[in-house]
Amino acid sequence: MRRRLLVVSTTLVGLLLVALMAPLVTTFAGDRTQDLFSSRLGDVTRFSVIAQGALESGDVEELSTDLERYVEVFGGSLVVTNADREVVASSGPEVDSSSPEVIAAIEQALSGSASTPPSTAWPWAEDAVVIGTPVGRDAQVLGAVVAVAPTASVQGRVTNVLIWLLLGGLATMLLTAYGVVSPFIGWVLRPVRDLDGAARRLADGDLGYRAHQTGPAELRDLARSFNTMADNVETSQQQQRDLVADAAHQLGNPLTALRLRVENLGSVGVDVHEVDIVLEETDRLNRIVEALLDLSQVGAHQVTLERLDVAEHARRRCEMWSPMFDRLVVMTPASAPALAGADIVDVALDALLDNAAKFAPGAAVEVTVRVSGDTDGRVLLRVRDHGAGLDAEDVGKVGARFFRGRQHQNVAGTGLGLAIVRARLDDLGGTLEAGLAPGGGLQVDVLLPAFRDGAPGSSARSPDGGQAAT
């Protein structure tokens, strides 16, 4: 936008300069041409007086000498004709008396009138100025004197003026563009750039950032409206979090009291099996409430990104979960630095391994960490089980809140674990992708931005090696 405004404004300044300089150059060229015409017309008139005596006496020798001397000093060509259009004396470069301009000047002179002022002598025009005047007194015309005056001097002066005006115009355009227009455009666009930066930060989750209200009045109004919108968005999201947190908190106490009362029912003769069923549902409600509390905190605060070794965290977390599986295979490089939050690997693996233990009991589970080698390097954390997997229609719903596969409706859980992981990854600039694994089972990929300033894969191998199997 800055470039377009600069081009438009510079073009307008250039057109203004052309509009101012064109009349100036035209007037200057016209005046110089008129000066040349007036000067040569006076000389031609003087020669017409001399030629009158020569034509009357028939002695043109002295006239020819005067013509030659004049041409030597002032240049050009002179020709004198009698009333029969015969050349009686001439000097200078040979004049083509048959040229239309010379013939017209002779005819006009023989008709008793002098030549009219010529057109402006421009540098790109090569025509000379042809000036004629009659020889004789009163109504008796004895002949004509015609001068062909070169316009090189006039064209040179006009060319110099054009060059200086062009240089001055270019200098004026540059000074105007970079001394006046560019600072003005910067003053106008600075608030626009600030608004763009504020919108980007707001989109990235920094709801506390506000645009500066500077620049022209219209942009100040726009910044004020943007800040008002940002306030409303922040208030709305905070109200939603507060509602979820308050509702979850308020549900906690009645659920605790309900559990205590149900437990007491066993002492008054109520069927213990029925009491256990109610207690299981109560525990499930408690887990949902706790998950809602966790979910309400996602995005509530600005996340601090730091260097995180995904491989190291994955090995340590899988070691904690290994007793839950018959076979847990962990494949990691020595190091896989990512730019992420400190606990995201633990949170993601807790949810993914818990799902694998519940939905693929007894099946082998593989945990893989890998660093991509492209310029947009990312760190992959994959959890793959060899269980029954999901229906193809349900794969795209993995990570949605309260989603449960149709064949897992009776398995304990809240359906919020992967939803919390997905929301946490969104805060970090990561992604969660799920799909059916080749050969059966489900695989879920957690993708995190690689740590750019590090050297992925170059650190020393950890004491427990780059690959572990449990």
Give the topology.
Elements: H1 2-57, H2 61-74, E1 77-82, E2 87-91, H3 100-110, E3 129-137, E4 140-149, H4 152-203, H5 217-265, H6 272-297, E5 306-309, H7 310-321, E6 328-331, E7 337-340, H8 344-359, E8 365-371, E9 378-385, H9 392-395, H10 417-428, E10 431-436, E11 442-449, E12 467-469
Parallel strand pairs: 6-8
Antiparallel strand pairs: 1-2, 1-4, 3-4, 5-7, 6-12, 8-9, 9-11, 10-11
Relative helix content: 40-55%
CATH superfamily of the largest domain: Histidine kinase-like ATPase, C-terminal domain
CATH classification class of the largest domain: Alpha Beta
Mean pLDDT: 78
- Our count of helices gives 10
What's the architecture of the largest domain, going by CATH?
2-Layer Sandwich
Q: Looking across the biggest beta sheet, what order are the strands in?
A: 10-11-9-8-6-12
Given helix and strand content, the structural type is: alpha+beta
**What's the SSE pattern?**
HHEEHEEHHHEHEEHEEHHEEE
Total beta strands: 12
